[in-house]
Amino acid sequence: SAVISQKPSRDICQRGTSLTIQCQVDSQVTMMFWYRQQPGQSLTLIATANQGSEATYESGFVIDKFPISRPNLTFSTLTVSNMSPEDSSIYLCSVSTGQGETQYFGPGTRLLVL
Amino acid sequence: AQSVTQPDIHITVSEGASLELRCNYSYGATPYLFWYVQSPGQGLQLLLKYFSGDTLVQGIKGFEAEFKRSQSSFNLRKPSVHWSDAAEYFCAVGAGDYKLSFGAGTTVTVRA
């Protein structure tokens, strides 16, 4: 498995501002993903973070709203831009080590937008 | 595309009693199947996974799950529940593209 950390663990932000969430893994991994978990809901995949190229976004998510970087095989960032209260969610980073399709998750970032 | 259904939104079980959580999937071939647990305020922890082979898989914390192709199911079981098992449980399916689809989750409450 992999050990994954996320920063910040939680934040309270004002609408119209942006927040960048960091995801750090203790080993090089093939795939990194970003998920959103809205209050009381399941997980929805936002995008796959590709090392050295643009992220691959799922339907309903766009780069202007959720820009993602992945400068190397152990680190990625997700920015939530121009936030509104509807962006209040838990944002989770996950990684796949290539063993089947097993994904391991970080502890999540709990975001509240006022 | 694959999908996952967890029919039970909320289950209450007495401490020491057995627990079974249902998961049904929709996918044309044999999928990759997973169960994750999310304790309050925590991220997701992998309980167990099925790729192929023996249809009864053992996981951490005393959990097991059985893959039944004929029923498109992957139910999670635990013979004796502990209070610390109170959490949200998610079933997930992968279809070979490294993306996982998650069920809506089942909340487990353990009463003393």
Spell out the key features of this protein:
heterodimer, A: 114 residues, mainly beta, seven-stranded mixed sheet, four-stranded antiparallel sheet, 11 strands, 51% strand, globular, B: 112 residues, 0% helix
Topology:
The complex is a heterodimer of chains A (114) and B (112).
Chain A (H helix, E strand, L loop, with lengths): L3 E4 L2 E4 L5 E7 L5 E7 L5 E7 L6 E2 L10 E5 L2 E6 L8 E8 L6 E3 L3 E5 L1
Parallel strand pairs in A: 2-11
Antiparallel strand pairs in A: 1-3, 3-8, 4-5, 4-9, 5-6, 7-8, 9-10, 9-11
Chain B lengths: L2 E3 L4 E5 L4 E3 L2 E3 L5 E7 L5 E7 L5 E3 L5 E5 L4 E6 L8 E8 L5 E3 L3 E6 L1
Parallel strand pairs in B: 2-12
Antiparallel strand pairs in B: 1-4, 3-9, 5-6, 5-10, 7-8, 8-9, 10-11, 10-12
Description:
The complex is a heterodimer of chains A (114) and B (112). Chain A has 114 residues and is mainly beta. Chain A is built from no helices and 11 strands. In chain A, strands 2, 4, 5, 6, 9, 10 and 11 form a 7-stranded mixed beta sheet that branches. In chain A, strands 1-3-8-7 form a 4-stranded antiparallel beta sheet, with no helix packed on it. The N and C termini of chain A lie far apart (36 Å). The relative contact order of chain B is 0.34. With 112 residues, chain B is mainly beta. The interface between A and B is medium-sized, with 22 and 21 residues.
What can be said about this structure in brief?
Chain A is mainly beta. Chain A contains no helices and 11 strands. Chain B has no helices and 12 strands.
Strand runs of chain B, count: 12
How much strand content do the residues of chain A show?
over 45%
**Contiguous uncertain segments of 5+ residues of chain A:** none
Helix/strand order of chain A, N-terminal first: EEEEEEEEEEE
Distance between the termini of chain A: 36 Å
Radius of gyration of chain B: 13 Å
User: What's the SSE pattern of chain B?
Assistant: EEEEEEEEEEEE
Low-pLDDT windows of residues of chain B: none
Give the % helix of chain A. under 10%
Q: Greatest contact pair?
A: A-B, 22 and 21 residues
- Seen as an oligomer or otherwise, the chain set is heterodimer
What gross morphology of chain B would you assign? globular
Distance between the termini of chain B: 41 Å
Structural class of chain A: mainly beta
Rg of chain A over CA atoms, rounded to whole Å, is: 13 Å
The biggest beta sheet of chain A reads: 7 strands, mixed
Count of runs of 4 or more consecutive helical residues of chain B? 0
Shape of chain A: globular
